[in-house]
Structures
1.
Amino acid sequence: MLCGGLLGSSLTFAPVQAALVELDQNCTLYTAESTCSGSPKCLWHRPFGGPATEATCVFSDRVDCSSHSSSVAMCSSSHEQCVWLPSSSWCTHQAGYSGLHLLLLYGTLLFGAALGSLIAYPLLQSYGMRRSLLVCGYLSVVACAGVHASTVTDTPFILMCARGLLGVACGIASCAGPLFLSKRSPPSYQRIAGVLFHLGTTTAGVVCGFVGLVVAPRTFDSPTGMNMDARKEALATVPLVYAVALVVVGHLMPTSPGEDVDGAVVDYSHEIDDEYPQGADDAIFFSSTAFVPITDLSASASGSGVYGSLASPVGSAASQVGTTIVRSPLGSRNSPLLAATSRSHRTSITAQLPPRYLFDHARPVLVALLLAAGDQLTGFGAVMFVAPTITTTAVDASPLTGIFFLQVWCFAASVVSLLLVLRANMRNLFSVGLAFISVGCGVVAASSWQGMLADDERAARRQPIGTALFIGGYEMGVGSNFYPLSIAAQPGTIRTIAASFTMSLRFLLHTSVVALFPQATMNIFPTTTSSDLVGVQRGNGATSSAQLGLCITFAFFAAVAASCGLLVLKALPRLSA
């Protein structure tokens, strides 16, 4: 829960921080000269020859975007600082982070998380889970201190560096946390242990969204009442609390024997459904088609009793296919003799395997790519990028309120996933979740197409429905089962490095979607302007060209989700959570 909380609070920090910065830099909100003069981008303007009561706070560049509110196209083409607000049908001056700053705020964390996931395997091998979690905690504390320093000094460079370091810590936590749960959880809790990391992520998202809602300023006529630096410091405290708690728990955590050994995690393969019957004398191995039980055969031709032949799931000796693999003479998959078989001895046996054995080595990579693509290449980063504004428009509330409602929906869906995982297996839940994602992306694509043709307000109302379907499918089926599947669907001998590789792929795809989604949307047609990029990233200001880009992009996400759902059913064994 703490590892997931660190990741969740770090991810949710970005939209909440962006909303607070927008409030700080939105000059139209200030009603007093003292507060207006305190913002570097604002100017207290008094009309020439007019009374002092007519003075207002305006942007220092003196760009009047409100005069271009007749249409979305006119607003977008008037000035690069003008954006369209669909909730009020009004053209307004851009306030807060630019599109590039938003990309850096998200991208530095995600790219750092990809690096952290990549180094998680050698770190776990060298120091073990307990000390790896301690390293993660200390890195997080240093990174959070950097975030606080950037707020005090108002230095974006320090903020981006701190976010990158925090991402490295989150990447390590994303690997070490689920592996620790799978290793230490009692058998009776194995079905829900893998989902707890994701539940911790959504819980921290709710906490971070609630803190942002609480610290948001209510009045804009007093410098003391604003004090935006203190409000940003309070928000940055949320991931710091998780980092300190991780350090404390890491010091109190006992060390168990064998936790530093590669693949020393709970073997999920014994939870295969009755599709592959197994008895007391069965040993489960990873094959080119699935996890297959090895029947109780007599000793091989060598007479050593260590080798056996791959047989059909029903155990017919006549169905042997002649693939030689390691076999425990004592039968049980927990046999001490099998556990004591040296890695070099197992390696020498591979020389007797047919050429298809090479596919066995490629299969873990393909499984990792399939899981990562189903988790991120289906548009999660893009949806979470624009979902806060879509939610804000749907509930007609402030951006921070929209973010909070969005995080509450994510948390509620992840709680439901705990109940679902007790009655279904991981593979099916993952596939059904992808089906919901495909439908949700299709709804968003259709509404964007309708909005492009007729500028129909009803089309804008359908976008929250598609977003809700997407997030519900992701939180209930895909995101909650991704972490345990990344461990369970890999062979035990390489489970740690395979989980590390899968997690790194996930964050790399997340980074790619966040970076390329607005660019792909903007460049569908050359008539789309740079203000559309900001509009797409902020969930508003999209012209018809950008609407077509949204339609094509989400249609692509829907196709990827449907394809991954079918491939998951075909390629993965039926594993319980």
2.
Amino acid sequence: DTLMNYGVKFQEDKNNMFASIFGDEMQSAIMRPAYPPMPLDWSKLERLNREKNLVGMYLSAHPLDEYYVFMKYACNVTLEQIAKSDLQENKDYTLACMVREVREMVSQKGDLWAIVTFEDYESSYEHRFFAKEYAQWGGFLKKGNFLAMKAKYAARNHWKPEAKSFNIQQVNLLSQEAPQAIGKLQISVPLQQIDENLVESLMQQIEMHPGNVQFRLLITDDSSRPRMSARLYSMKYKLNLTKELMEYFETIPEVGIKVN
């Protein structure tokens, strides 16, 4: 819209100049309108939201990339599975998502409740927080918040055990939950697969991602009987487990990773 308005203004000024009796002589002196003010630097989240609003999808990254490791290694359910009720009864679930939309409503009794739309990498899911739930968790349920939740798929009540629902039992900010859940990384490599290229590649990635997460190297020898292994703890390096780093580990067939 800003560019279109600028173009219209420029064309209007040009037409007005040609309409004057000096138009032919002063064509080269047409004054361009002032450039529209440019926005200040956007935050990463605002830039990504503007990308999605403009083209319907995130292009350069996803808002949840910061929590990729938590979502992949600490969570055991996706929003798509929840929406399809592809769940096991009475199983404890951990999920991570962002709040896309909150629609508050008032019941006939005057109680405030809400329909909240959550979003993860692949899907979205609407959950109804009735008065008691919304009073308990409403402080976390704000548009744009990144949340970690614990829940259970179980009967709604004792009177209708056949009626199952996804019962949210705990809500927390991902920024608080993720660091507590991700404390160590173990990289396992078979002894027979270790060579100079692999060591150089691993060291390059380790040095490129300094952070606070401890890691250890587990070297295994499957050819020995009994099977032998050695754990090497790094005293010098700690890692920032970014999406890029974890995807690097995941693409190397020889390397196994364990997060806890």
3.
Amino acid sequence: QLAAIGMVLIWAGGFSATPERYLGVVWVAIVTEIVDGIWDIYSVAGGLEEPVIGYATVVIHLIWIFTALWALGRARKELEGEAATGTVAA
């Protein structure tokens, strides 16, 4: 799950010519990573998960959240550029 979400976010933010097409997926990824991060912290606090593993995955969740915010920023710039020029990406 972590790898799949990360690949989608990297694609949306870095490789896609039209990052605005992925806005819905990016928001779902953000919510998913927040919930999973909270679960990992809860699991460590409750003794259900080894601290090293739990905190390592929390760091990965944070990386994906920041990647998602980067993708959103790129999409916003694309949308602002379209609004300024009056063009729409195909």
